Here is the input.
Amino acid sequence: MSTVAQMKCACESCLCVVSTDKAVQKDGKFYCCEACANGHPDGSGCGHTGCECHA
Here is the structure.
């Protein structure tokens, strides 16, 4: 049986909370999506409702 842990996306300006089993992992950190994990190279946000991250 696995424990589902939830944590805030590692992107500083992102408000999303992700479960560690579904998160995008990069450098030991958990992100809600590829855009956050890659540092928003094209300036776009994560696209999740109510979240304005893009930095």
